[in-house]
DNA sequence: TAGTGGTCTAGACCACCGC
DNA sequence: CGGTGGTCTAGACCACTAT
């Protein structure tokens, strides 16, 4: 006479695939329970164990089966809804979204710099010095004109061919940027390990024709279409910590990302 | 001997500006309490009543003062953290982010089509008919090649001058798209009022040189740099509902948005 | 050490959906 | 109508930060 009664395995397509999944929760772990659950659900979705359209089963049953409270289960589910992997509908249930929708995780070039820098693509530092801030840079970084800033110019290659020219400015007192580490580690990783916690960035993506210098550097013809990106990044205190001005070879690069619709 | 004791008004800069704010909560309203609170907090931030750097006061006090439970207050605060308006730090408190960080709400061209279509910018429909799907369109929309799709070609102007050429394909059975309504209402609004609930979109932004036809249409020179955007939009069931292929005059248009860093 | 947000529990009632 | 997620409560203990 258990308080929970599992209905006789409904084999209708797209139903309760969760029943047979073995979830393991470690209450001694420092990882929050809702996060452990979310990770395992996400893995099950990624591996196809939880197929698109599958219902997750109602939250009450789920919490009883897992030995968790309902709010904790909801928190796990909510995090996957926020990632776009699950959809909740009142009166219906929670189901896995169809696969086409969730292939590229999201984000744009900030992610690119943040994670994949110095990997498959190689980056060569062309310039790395401290100079007085120009009016434009000073305004973007919120420092006084003439204040010392670090200027960085880098050429990024993929498969041996140029992809982008990156110019970045940072307040000089913020951190040291030895060229060797920059080439192997990537700018954002270095900022993070220097204790700088990023909060957000404002970006503007545009296009224009290549100048003669840009063309030479990127192995394009003068006047070729280039993709441009300007960005100011802020840390959690709201202080601007980086101002970037990048140009990409449009013939070899595009910004790919996913948008979730705010409901 | 009240269980909560309010420390003597600290007047240090950036502290407890919330004390004097009058929040009104209506328990008979269909609007959730956490949402009412979030809206009023957001308004206070937007109007500057809650200045950047201001601490919000701890969640326990706040919930007592408002007559709400702590989880409800947390839910309100969390929604503003997700929007990038507030920052929480354990052991410190919750504070308003600095203003530069939060100027443009976020989103890119999906928002543009979703909200601002048919407003200041005017849109002229150049083509609106039903045709058999090409291989490319069929693949993008997940329909059979040759299935009936609606093709839309529009020219968008701002301040009387061309800004973008928009080409969209939709599964024909999805909805009716009378040209007159399209020009006044915008595509996404029409989809929404037809009961189509959007979930997400995959986008790719690139650049290339203008063809002769595009140049003529957009009042640019042949070979001028254009910004391009390709997008597939999905509804909550994961079904593709729109495939768009847009070109923008780079000299008069850029994608502007804010990224929040996933922590 | 005191104060903050982070996590978690065990209930409750309601609104919406599909049958 | 029964089942689902949506909202809300009133506690509890823990981890981190600053002083």
Automatic annotation (TrEMBL), chains A, B:
SMART domains: HTH_GNTR, UTRA. This is GntR family transcriptional regulator. InterPro entries: Bact_HTH_transcr_reg, Chorismate_lyase_/UTRA_dom_sf, Tscrpt_reg_HTH_GntR, UTRA, WH-like_DNA-bd_sf, WH_DNA-bd_sf. One of its GO terms (biological process) is negative regulation of DNA-templated transcription. PANTHER family: GNTR-FAMILY TRANSCRIPTIONAL REGULATOR, MANNOSYL-D-GLYCERATE TRANSPORT/METABOLISM SYSTEM REPRESSOR MNGR-RELATED. One of its GO terms (molecular function) is DNA-binding transcription factor activity. The keyword Transcription regulation applies. The keyword DNA-binding applies.
């Amino acid at each position: 006479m258990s308080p929970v009664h599992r209905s006789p395995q409904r084999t209708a397509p797209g139903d309760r695939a969760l029943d047979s999944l073995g979830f393991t929760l470690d209450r001694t772990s420092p990882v929050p329970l809702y996060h452990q659950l979310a990770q395992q659900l996400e893995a099950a979705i990624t591996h196809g164990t939880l197929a698109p359209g599958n219902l997750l089963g109602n939250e009450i049953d789920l919490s009883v089966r897992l030995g968790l409270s309902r709010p904790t289960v909801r928190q796990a589910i909510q995090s996957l809804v926020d990632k776009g992997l699950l959809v909740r509908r009142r009166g219906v249930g929670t189901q896995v979204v169809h696969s086409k929708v969730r292939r590229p995780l999201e984000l744009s070039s900030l992610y690119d710099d943040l994670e994949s820098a110095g990997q498959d693509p190689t980056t060569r530092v062309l310039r790395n010095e401290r100079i007085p801030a120009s009016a434009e840079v000073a305004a973007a970084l919120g420092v006084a004109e003439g204040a010392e800033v670090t200027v960085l110019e880098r050429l990024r290659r993929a498969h041996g061919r140029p992809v982008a020219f990156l110019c970045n400015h940072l307040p000089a007192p913020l951190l040291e940027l030895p060229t060797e580490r920059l080439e192997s580690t990537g700018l954002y990783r270095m900022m993070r390990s220097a204790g700088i916690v990023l909060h957000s960035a404002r970006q503007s993506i545009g296009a224009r024709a290549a100048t003669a210098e840009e063309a030479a550097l990127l192995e394009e013809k003068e006047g070729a279409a280039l993709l441009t990106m300007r960005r100011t990044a802020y840390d959690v205190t709201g202080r601007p910590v980086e101002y970037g001005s990048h140009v990409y070879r449009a013939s070899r690069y595009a910004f790919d990302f996913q948008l979730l619709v705010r409901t």
